Amino acid sequence: MSTDSGGRVAFATAAFWVLLTGTVFAATDTMVPTQNYGNYCGNANVCQTDNRDLTYYMDSGGTYELELIDRDFVRTAVSSDYGPTDLVISYDSSPSFSGSAETDHIWQEGSTGIASDAVGMAWCDDSVSGWSCDQHYIRIRGNGYYTSSTTCHEMGHGVGLVHGTQAYPQRSNADVAAMGCMTTPSASGDLGTNNFNNINATY
Ligand SMILES: [Zn+2]
User: Fold this and answer.
1) Exposed e or buried b for every residue in 68-82, given b needs 16+ CB within 10 A?
2) Pure H helices in the chain
3) CA of 40 to the centre of ligand 1 (A)
4) Which of 10, 101, 153, 163 is deepest in the core (most CB within 10 A)?
């Protein structure tokens, strides 16, 4: 019961904040930086992408090539989850890996460097300033680990979404209502309204 009560108090505070400021304030802040996630944008941290125009590329050869079924799950996340947001997403068939306008998301299939208890990871390869990153890599294991929930989840990290315990107010990592596909272990294939609102408030 104490957890429930705490949640209600925190929510009431958030609602009051709307009255005070008149600005949009999502019920749960899931966009980096939150009051519970205060690191800088770096290689091991979750970062925002550098602007609302988001280009992506799926590795098309070599060690980390995506198979057709993996590509379909990425396309689904792009079209169904993130397409309806304010992000303007397009495929970049001639990706750029250097300079000031790199392809924003590089998708890979593979397990190199992924923790034994994780199915995938997303990391910033080229932080810009503050909370922005020019290029994220998104890598998910093969052999069935590409799903609607894992692609939605890892792409979420690539635009700055965090886990429940890093959100503010803090949520359970399994709280689907607040966290959508950012639950961990990933338990939902839907971005969810709260993450949708956080993205549109940022980009
Ligand atoms: Zn995650």
Assistant:
1) eebbebbebbbeebb
2) 2-21, 68-76, 148-158, 176-179, 193-202
3) 17
4) 153
116, 131, 201 from 31: Cα distances, Å:
26, 10, 9
pLDDT value of residue 17? 44
CATH number at residue 189: 3.40.390.10
Strand bridging mode 88-91 / 53-58 = parallel
The CA 22 to ligand 1 mean position distance, Å, reads: 31
Crossing angle of helices 148-158/68-76, nearest 10°? 60
Cross-sheet strand order for the sheet of 88-91 = 88-91, 53-58, 105-109, 136-140, 120-124
pTM: 0.86
Q: Return the pLDDT at 6.
A: 34
Read off the pLDDT of residues 151-175 as tens digits, 9 standing for 90 and up.
999 999 999 999 999 999 999 999 9
Query: How many domains in the chain?
Result: 1
Domain presence at residue 94: yes
* Residue 7 in domain: no
> In this structure, which amino acid lies at residue 156?
G
The answer as to whether 57 is a domain residue is yes
Tell how far the Cα of 19 is from the centroid of ligand 1, in angstroms.
32
Do the domain assignments include residue 91?
yes
Ligand 1 mean position, distance from CA 156 (Å): 8
168-180 burial code (b ≥16 CB/10 A, e <16): bbbbebebbebbb
Q: Report residue 56: phi and psi, to 5°.
A: -140, 155
